[in-house]
Amino acid sequence: MNNKIRALRADCGWSQAHLADLLQVSRQTVNAIETGRYDPSLPLAFAIAKLFSQPIEAIFTPDQEPA
């Protein structure tokens, strides 16, 4: 799954550690989500969307499957 978390976090001037604190997860979890190595749980995805005041669909997009 692709996401815009890195850009949204940068717009807010937040470090990965600060975002992790706000979401009550580890900095490693934030890094893994940003790099696409980990897809967040649905409750975590909702928490991220709420934190950035955006709908989930604006932050997370599915990977494109080959045609």
TrEMBL record:
SUPFAM superfamilies: lambda repressor-like DNA-binding domains (SSF47413). It comes from the Bacteria. This is Helix-turn-helix transcriptional regulator. InterPro entries: Cro/C1-type_HTH, Lambda_DNA-bd_dom_sf. Keywords: DNA-binding. The keyword DNA-binding applies. The keyword Phosphoprotein does not apply. It comes from Massilia soli. Residues 5-59 form the HTH cro/C1-type domain.
